[in-house]
C-alpha cells in the first residue's frame, strides 16, 4: 500500500513516498526555489537496507504544476509507482485548519473552500498548501487526497486554555484564540512514547518539546493536548531560531509609537530577525554553540535564554498536569543537543526529573530514555517523523467508513 505525502510551500514542494505495509520510506525529495533559475529537484531513493543515494534531477521548475509533474515522472521512471492505482492515497500537510478541522479529512470542493477561508489566519502557508492540493487533484483525480492539519491535534484544548483574556467578541468576529501548531509532530512522538513505555496513550500525561527551527511545548493529558505554547500564530511561546516567542504584547505598540519602525518592519523583525538570531546573530543552534564555545557572550546568553524559557514551560505544564509520566524532546535541537536537554532538566529532582549524563550523551536509537534509573518521570528523546505521521493519518482517514468523514464531529 503506497502513500505519498506532499508538503507544498510557497516556493518548495517536499515529498515522501511510503510503502505502509512495512512503514518503509521508498523515496523522499525536495523541489526548492520554484520559479527561479536556480530551482532544484533533489531526491533520495531508499533501499530495503535503509541506505539511500542523493540525486539531483538538474532541471528548472517554473511553477507548482511543473514541480508536481517532475515528482510524478520521477516516481514512475524509477518504478516507485508504475501506475496511479498503486497509490492508496495522498496526504497533504495543511498548516491551518482553524476550529473547523479536528482530524484529517478527505479533500473535496467543500474542504478546499474551508481551507481557503482559513487563509487570513495563515497567509503564508495555506495558499501554498492549497496550490499543491489543487494541482495534485488535477493531475491525479482518481487518487483519494487527504488534508492533515498542523492545528488539529490541539483542538482538544479546553476553553480556559485556548481563550485569550481579550474582548470576548474578538473570538467570534476575528477568530482570535490559541490554535497551536506542530500538532502532527507532538501527536507522533506522544504515540511513540506510549509504545516505548508499553502504556496506552490515553492513560499517559506527557510534556512534549518540539525544538527545531520553530519550537513549541505541549501539555498532553491522557493522550489529549490540553495546552500548547504556540497561539493564534506560530510566533508565541518558546524562543525559536528567528522568532521571538513570548514578549510583552505592548512591545510592538511602544516601538511603533517611537516612530522609528513601521508595523510591517516590527512584524518582520519578530518573525525573522529575533530568537537566537536576534540575540546572537545565528539561528542555527550548532553555530550558536560554536560561537559560545569560542567565548562569544551574546551566544552564551542566547543559549541560556533558550534553555531558561523551555524550563519555564516545563514548570508551568507540570503544574497544569499535576502528574507527568514523561517529558519528550524532539526536533533537530531536541534530538541532538545533549547540553540543552541537561540545562532544561537541571535541578528538577524534587519534581522527579533527573537526567543520566551518560545516557544523555549517547543516543543511538530513534527512541531513547535518558532519565536516571530511579526517577519517576521518564525523559525521552524521540526522533520525530511528521511525514510518516501524515501518511498514517491519511491511510486511516481513507480506510474509515464514509460516515465518519465528518469534518468536525461533536
Ligand atoms: P525544522 O524546524 O526546519 O524541521 P529541524 O527540526 O531540522 O528544523 O531543526 C533544525 C535545528 O536543529 C537547527 O537549529 C540545527 O542547528 C539544530 N541541530 C541539528 N543538529 C544539531 C546538533 N547536533 N546539535 C544541536 N543542534 C542541532
UniProtKB/TrEMBL annotation:
This is Acetate kinase. The gene is ackA. It is found in: Cytoplasm. GO terms for biological process: acetate metabolic process; acetyl-CoA biosynthetic process. ATP binds at residues 14, 210-214, 284-286, 332-336. Catalyzes the formation of acetyl phosphate from acetate and ATP. Can also catalyze the reverse reaction. Mg(2+). Can also accept Mn(2+). GO terms for cellular component: cytoplasm. The active site is at 150 (proton donor/acceptor). Its cofactor is Mg(2+); Mn(2+). The keyword Disulfide bond does not apply. NCBIfam families: ackA. The record marks 182, 243 as: Transition state stabilizer. Belongs to the acetokinase family. Homodimer. Pathway: Metabolic intermediate biosynthesis; acetyl-CoA biosynthesis; acetyl-CoA from acetate: step 1/2. Keywords: ATP-binding, Cytoplasm, Kinase, Magnesium, Metal-binding, Nucleotide-binding, Transferase. PROSITE patterns: ACETATE_KINASE_1, ACETATE_KINASE_2. Its EC number is 2.7.2.1. It catalyses: acetate + ATP = acetyl phosphate + ADP. Substrate binds at residue 93. GO terms for molecular function: acetate kinase activity; ATP binding; magnesium ion binding. The lineage of its organism: Bacteria, Pseudomonadati, Pseudomonadota, Gammaproteobacteria, Methylococcales. Mg(2+) binds at residues 7, 386.
Amino acid at each position: 500500500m503506497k502513500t505519498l505525502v506532499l508538503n507544498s510551500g510557497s516556493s518548495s514542494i517536499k515529498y515522501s513516498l511510503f510503502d505502509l505495509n512495512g512503514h518503509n520510506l521508498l523515496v523522499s525529495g525536495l523541489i526548492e526555489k520554484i520559479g527561479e533559475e536556480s530551482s532544484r529537484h533533489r531526491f533520495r531513493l531508499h533501499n530495503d537496507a535503509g541506505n539511500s543515494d542523493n540525486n539531483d534531477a538538474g532541471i528548472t521548475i517554473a511553477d507548482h504544476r511543473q514541480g508536481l509533474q517532475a515528482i510524478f515522472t520521477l516516481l514512475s521512471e524509477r518504478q516507485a509507482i508504475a501506475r496511479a492505482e498503486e497509490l492508496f492515497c495522498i496526504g497533504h500537510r495543511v498548516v491551518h485548519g482553524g476550529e473547523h478541522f479536528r482530524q484529517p479529512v478527505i479533500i473535496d470542493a467543500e474542504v478546499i473552500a474551508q481551507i481557503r477561508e482559513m487563509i487570513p489566519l495563515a497567509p503564508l502557508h495555506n495558499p501554498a498548501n492549497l496550490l499543491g492540493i489543487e494541482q495534485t487533484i488535477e493531475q491525479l483525480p482518481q487518487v483519494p487526497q487527504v488534508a492533515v492539519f498542523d492545528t488539529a491535534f490541539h483542538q482538544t484544548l479546553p476553553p480556559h486554555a485556548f481563550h485569550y483574556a481579550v474582548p470576548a467578541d474578538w473570538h467570534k468576529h476575528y477568530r482570535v484564540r490559541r490554535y497551536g501548531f506542530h500538532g502532527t509532530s507532538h501527536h507522533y512522538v506522544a504515540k511513540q512514547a506510549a509504545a516505548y513505555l508499553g502504556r496506552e496513550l490515553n492513560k499517559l500525561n506527557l510534556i512534549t518539546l518540539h525544538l527545531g527551527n520553530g519550537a513549541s511545548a505541549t501539555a498532553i493529558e491522557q493522550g489529549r493536548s490540553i495546552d500548547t505554547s504556540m497561539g493564534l500564530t506560530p510566533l508565541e511561546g518558546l524562543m525559536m531560531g528567528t522568532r521571538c516567542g513570548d514578549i510583552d504584547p505592548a512591545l510592538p505598540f511602544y516601538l511603533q509609537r517611537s516612530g522609528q519602525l513601521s508595523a510591517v518592519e516590527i512584524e518582520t523583525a519578530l518573525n525573522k530577525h529575533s530568537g537566537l538570531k536576534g540575540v546572537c546573530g545565528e539561528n542555527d543552534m550548532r553555530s550558536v554553540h560554536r560561537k559560545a564555545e569560542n567565548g562569544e557572550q551574546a551566544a552564551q546568553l542566547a543559549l541560556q535564554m533558550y534553555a531558561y524559557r523551555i524550563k519555564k514551560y516545563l514548570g508551568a505544564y507540570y503544574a497544569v498536569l499535576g502528574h507527568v509520566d514523561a517529558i519528550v524532546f524532539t526536533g533537530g535541537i531536541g534530538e541532538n543537543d545533549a547540553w540543552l536537554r541537561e540545562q532544561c532538566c537541571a535541578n528538577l529532582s524534587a519534581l522527579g526529573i533527573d537526567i543520566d549524563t551518560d545516557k544523555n550523551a549517547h543516543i543511538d536509537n530513534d527512541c531513547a530514555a535518558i532519565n536516571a534509573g530511579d526517577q519517576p518521570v521518564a525523559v525521552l528523546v524521540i526522533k520525530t517523523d511528521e511525514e510518516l505521521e501524515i501518511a498514517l493519518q491519511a491511510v486511516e482517514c481513507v480506510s474509515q467508513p464514509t460516515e465518519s468523514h465528518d469534518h468536525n464531529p461533536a
